[in-house]
Write a structure and sequence with these properties.
Oligomer: single chain
Largest sheet: 5 strands, mixed
Number of strands: 5
Distance between the termini: 31 Å
Number of helices: 13
Order of helices and strands: HHHHHHHHHEEEHEHEHH
Length: 314
């Protein structure tokens, strides 16, 4: 059966909105948003929605092909056909799990393997069929199944996008801030330091000071996940810095930071570059650049940074 994988990949690769998400231009735009204290997710959301729209269309066309080739048993027959492909593409692998209303991560949590998917689908088809029959809508089972597949695809795409973009942007943010302030990578600061005898977890960044180094961690998480910030506070040590997007109004992380003598810098609705400068100028052994505060000046400073800060490696 034709799974239209090449067509799907062509849609993805040729769409400017999609490829732009990890381009140098996009990374600069998101760095500017963060340094202005704004919400970078507004930039990435259009990218994610574009991927979802094209994925929904691809799923619809594959299902239509399966219905034409396999008839009423298209769900189980499609999984069997996929199982018989020796070298499946990543798209075909995902499709197998989406057919069962799952993602790879969910299937792992449930202890479901690819060999179980056909049985899962048979059982699920009976369950959903009975459910729709009870409400006298059993003729909508294929439409319902298509929406269930789209829901699984949504979870997968949103999860993978959020993780990748967030991790890359954390490094872009630190490099942008420190370069604007006049620090140089591998001279005055170092990125992604591996664990060692002193620190048992990888550190996002270390900055040279007059008395050694201080650690910097970034957490671009939602306000509901403040326990992530609490964990980072405990990891950076005295005079360390934790940058975060925002937290809820009833948070106690500032009390925790005061006890550990850690500097917290909220990004949203704030001036994170100015706050970083005020914390570092008394600690480092060099004259820092005075940070820009006006929007146009911040944009100009980011635009003048070297390209390698914003280059995303495949």
């Amino acid at each position: 059966m034709d799974y239209l994988v090449e067509q799907y990949n062509s849609w993805m690769n040729d769409n400017i909105a999609l490829t732009n998400a990890f381009s140098e231009t996009s990374m600069r735009q998101m760095a500017i948003q963060l340094l202005l204290g704004k919400n970078y997710r507004l930039i990435t959301e259009n990218n994610t929605k574009s991927k979802l729209a094209l994925t929904y269309l691809w799923i619809s066309e594959v299902v239509k092909n399966a219905q034409n080739e396999f008839g009423g048993e298209w769900k189980v027959r499609l999984v069997d056909d996929l199982n018989n492909i020796r070298h499946r593409t990543p798209e075909q692998d995902n499709l197998m799990f989406w057919l069962a209303g799952l993602t790879k991560k969910t299937s792992t949590n449930l202890g479901v393997s690819k060999n179980n998917l056909a049985d899962i689908i048979v059982s699920l088809q009976d369950h959903i069929g009975q459910l729709l029959e009870r409400i006298q809508h059993d003729e909508y089972i294929d439409n319902t199944w298509l929406l269930m597949m789209a829901g699984s695809a949504t979870l997968y795409i949103r999860g993978s996008d959020k993780s990748r973009i967030g991790k890359i942007l954390e490094g872009v943010l630190i490099r942008s801030m420190l370069n604007i302030l006049g620090l140089r990578e591998n001279e005055n600061f170092w990125m992604n330091i591996d664990r060692d005898a002193e620190v048992d977890r990888e550190t996002d960044c270390e900055i040279e000071t007059m008395r050694g180094r201080i650690r910097v961690e970034v957490g671009l998480i939602s306000s509901e996940n403040q326990e992530v910030i609490e964990d980072k506070i405990g990891r950076v040590g005295t005079n360390g810095v934790v940058l975060f997007d925002k937290v809820g109004g009833n948070t106690r992380i500032y009390d925790t930071a005061d006890r550990h003598r850690v500097k917290l810098i909220q990004i949203r609705n704030n001036q994170p570059l100015v706050e970083m400068y005020r914390h570092l100028y008394r600690l480092v052994n060099l004259n820092l650049n005075t940070p820009p505060e006006l929007e146009d000046d911040i944009i100009n400073a980011v635009d003048n940074l070297p390209s390698d800060i914003f280059r995303v490696e495949d």
